[in-house]
Amino acid sequence: MMWGIGIVLGWLLILVGVVLLIKAIEHRRVQEVRQLLSGQQILLLDSSANLMGQESLGVAAVHGNGILALTRSQLYFLMWLPKRETKVRTAGITAVETPRSYMGRSRLKPLLKVVFTNERGQADSAAWLVKDLEAWQDALKSVATVQ
Fold this sequence. Notes:
The protein is an alpha+beta fold. It contains 2 helices and 9 strands.
């Protein structure tokens, strides 16, 4: 009986430790994004957006949680781990869509899909699961000429 309680408490401590570590990483990345974008007004920020992929990088592209921030000139994403960034110029955004899946990945909720012209002048897209989809759609439409 005591072994069972000890095992449960041990797992509970590990779980609490993991949650605290994730929150610390999230906080650190938010501070990094605010510093990287200093001098620009951040119109919208989601500290736990989930990148579903980027079309030009293919299905093997790294995806995961991170900080999604919008300024008048760019949509910026900094992944928690590994530390990777995605930058989209707002002037290059051509459409904002809300599919339920993207590149074979789904989270059973509508996603924020941004269609844009990338730095190589090619059509591209990326999609995120965000907390407030409607707010992201409205904000993107206010800074970019989108459909």
